[in-house]
């Protein structure tokens, strides 16, 4: 698991009178989704001949 469950649920719940329940399956799906940008950042870093992943590798 890449994400901290309690922190992720806190962020997803919402604020004020708009709160949402979050299932464990939602956390698992979000966790799986996070592997894609990590993989892309690694590929971008390698393509640029670097071994250090930089913020713009993830945000590009």
Structural notes for this entry:
With 60 residues, the protein is mainly alpha-helical. The protein has one domain. The two termini are 24 Å apart. The chain is elongated. The model has no long low-confidence stretch (mean pLDDT 91).
Chain-wise SSE layout:
Layout: H1 5-13, H2 24-47, H3 55-59
How are helices and strands ordered from N to C? HHH
Q: Find the count of extended strands (DSSP E, 2+ residues).
A: 0
Poorly predicted ranges: none
Helix content: 55-70%
Please sum up the structure shown.
The chain is mainly α and 60 residues long. Helices cover 63% and strands 0% of the residues. The protein has one domain.
List keywords for this structure.
mainly alpha, 60 residues
